[in-house]
Amino acid sequence: MKNILWCCLISWIFWPGFTWAQTTAPSAPTLSVRITEAGTGKPVSFVSGYLKRGRNGNTADENGLLSLSIKQLPDTLLLSEVGYEPVTVPIATQPTDTLIINMRTVTGQLDEVVVTGYRDPGKALMKKVIANKRTNDPQRLTRWTRNNYLRTEVDIENLSANQKRKLLTTMLKVYQQFQNDSSARTSLPIFFREQYRKEYHIRSPQSDAAYLVSEQNLGLQTDEIGQRLDRFNEPLNPYDGIIPIQKTSFVGPASDIGLAVYQFDKPDTLIDAGKYSYRLTFRPRSTTENGFVGSLLIDDGSYAIREVNIRTNAGANLNFIRSLSIQQTYLPIDDSERGTVWVLTKNALRYGFENGLGLLGLPTRIDSTSRTVTIQSTSVYGNYKINPEGVTATNFALAEQTTPSVATFTDAYRLSPLTTRERAIYQAVDSLKNNRQFRNTTRMAAFITTGYWDVRNKVRFGPYSSLFSSNLTEGLRIRTGLWTMEGFDPRWCLWGYVAYGTRDRRFKETVGIKYVANRSPYQKYELTLKNDYDALTANDDMLDNDNLFTLALRKPIPVYQNFLRQVRFAHERDLSPLWSVKTYYSYGSMTPTFKFSYAPSDEIVNVADSSVSLLNTLYNSEVGVTFRYARNERTAIVNYDKLRLYTRFPVWQFHAAAGVPLYRNTYFDYWKLSTSLSQEMPAPLKGSFYYNLTGGVVLGTVPLLLLHIPRGNPNYVADKYAFYSMSPYEFAADRYVSLLTRYSLGGLILDRIPLINKLGLRERVTANLFWGSLSGANRDFNKINTFRTTGSVPYAEAGVGIENILNLFSIDAIWRLNYLNGADAARSTRFGIYTGLKLQF
């Protein structure tokens, strides 16, 4: 059982690769140093090392290991760290082994410098940090550009070479051939990537722009997991009051309420080159709080944070994540407008994941093998330019158009050199590429994780989750799909699927062509021909209806589907780092599976008149445009589509569509106008709050299918985009306002209950409203069809729920508060238990 759970986590991380890259060329000789504390032998972390003649430096890791490229000999190595005496080591010839250097602590710590007039000197010092954070916060800079060198690595920790795991043992032994200090029980790197980016930031309106200059991967099928790993590279700001980590909120130590949340120890006063600083350690007062344990290095005089060395506390509720370690360094730079400002120069994050039954959220001991997966991302920032002339977010992002799509990666892009360990990764991978078992296993892991089977980065089949499903209209539904990948063509994608139902005994299919004219700024054209029930999802993170899970939880109501025959042409492009636009034209027919009729004209007719010809298949021709505004949004291009993943800022959209009756069987001209504001933001003290406020109008007399239909939920499945207790096509409107909300408390209550707090459960509250009215003309035109309008009292529903059950499931109890009676009451769900299944961090 433990091995299965452990492999599931590895499978989740793997993703089939689309691109291939070259490995590094032979590099310069390397000096390896292990730095320890004199007298104790403990490693000294984050020591600054510098070769005087070579004029290159680096920082030791948390284990005191330092690696420097030797450019010329003889040379002199300079070592320095706050609290230790500087060390000078002459290097005459290249050492064959790792140098071991002892550093002595600075004697005579100036305890008398610490203010003793306070009962709690640590708290007093933190008060000064908080009082000066408006001056020291890097976010106060108006504009800047910088370079970012990012290394990302995924490791299997504590994997023994003696274990009977043929593939992993082979990989570990190959790696140990190139890693001199490997032990019998060590970590195995399974992913490594280097990126060099240029970045731009403006404070008001807050916006970031960046473009990739160069990237280097291992050249394996697993390279594409980098798109998923981007979510784990979140540079936090220690001055923020509420710090969001993986959609969970943490109280920062420099928060205005941090003095109440944290216990601060007595600070140590340190001297470095005659300058004073203070090492302040802290921890949450309560183990149930989402907080940090660690230390800050605080500059004397300015009370700016110079270094951050913290980790999430043991009681933090982060799903599969056991711990997160954060290390940052800040250096002062001069701003002509604002004086001296401390800016981030290094950001190192290390995620440790659960293993064994911990993957299911069960409070058990750590797996006896101690194997776990870690993700490390380290960014080194340099070449800051404050208030650069003539640079904007728009023209900065467009600068990529004048450069090659991806430049060849060179040593010049490394703002810090590779360590001996990191060079060994490249060497080991070169040997593993010819291992058939390694290639086949990574491909199978990708198939289990994504549901798609890839053939040489050219063709993709799947997903297997939609191979079999069932519904009341089609009976057993069989569906299989095919996509071409970037190995086939980097710009063109041919895709489609075929489905067959055993009850309706008919084939359904959809085919499409995508053309990505540009990736930055993104620009795509797409032509789609569809002949199927409109059962596909409209949002990226919604559950596909083609699966057996939704059938088992379907409400006992009639089927509300539309058989769609449609041709659609769409164009999507980014106008700037903040703005994007989608335009489309569609023509086709809709045939509902439920009772629906309309007259082929916008004139009101007497439906009781037998001479009036009514239709139940609606032909329509429509053109539309959607403008979207989002700040600092995380995105990823997957299957040639740009997915909008997450931003903590509000997202605004405006949509306009018009009916254009160009053909004989299209009868209706109309306008649809709508606007929406949505946001998922961190909320005190632990959770997050999501809302989606939408309003719009339909101008014109149109049949039911062209009115605004609020999204009802036909299943007992959680769906944050739908009204839980409302059925599809239950309400209709030509003027409407809707509000969907969900407040996740993050365990604020459950974490305080003994025993229950071991399960990592999180409570949430849901409240949804819909108001819609219908003009007299549209009401009379559609009087033969069955639907409701809300009138002056909005539809309302509310509920409570629990998420993170076994780190996978959620359960919500939802009550419908009104519109419980009437002719349409048969499909009303007064109360329901809704469940969800989602891998979410």
From TrEMBL:
InterPro entries (UniProt xref): DUF5686
Leader sequence residues: 1-21
Key words, A-Z: Signal
The protein, known as: Carboxypeptidase-like regulatory domain-containing protein
Organism: Fibrella rubiginis
